[in-house]
Amino acid sequence: MAPNSFMSLQYICEFASRLLFLSVHWAQSIAAFQNMSHDVQTSLIRGCWCQLFVLGLAQTSQVMSLATILSAIITHLQTTLQQDTLSLQRIKQVTDHICKLQDFVNTFQKLQVDEREYAYLKSIILFSPENVGIRLNNRQIERFQEMCANEL
């Protein structure tokens, strides 16, 4: 693998790691989230980290040039195909996911979702009772989700 490809991949991994960290940090800054037990907080984050991550990608897509990042991932996939390190089927699956992700981000850009709307969307996702295996706080979590949906 060429050094530039490695740096691109390293950058992409660092970007993804930071975005995930910022998503968790954002959740921890919400007073209602802070007032929940550690177990409930963990369950909520585990249940929705992927959706929060995708919304974060959409939110930062123009600042971080998501199209360039996705293009670099596709280039890396082509290299792995040439090196025969991944199956064609797996590469097709990943490429399909990348295309769907780009379509999702394009839709949000067309809708011109602002920072406040992103915050409410992420809150609705975070405060989803389905994300908690513990039944104790479901009603409280539902109320937070309803409040966020009403504000949106």
TrEMBL record:
What InterPro entries does this protein map onto?
NHR-like_dom_sf, Nucl_hrmn_rcpt_lig-bd, Nuclear_hormone_rcpt_NR2, Nuclear_hrmn_rcpt
- The NR LBD domain extends over 1-152
Q: Does the keyword Zinc-finger apply?
A: no
One Pfam match, by short name? Hormone_recep
UniProt keyword list: Receptor, Transcription, Transcription regulation
PROSITE patterns named in the record: NR_LBD
Protein name as it appears in the record: Nuclear receptor subfamily 2 group C member 2-like protein
Please report the organism this UniProt entry assigns to the protein: Euroglyphus maynei
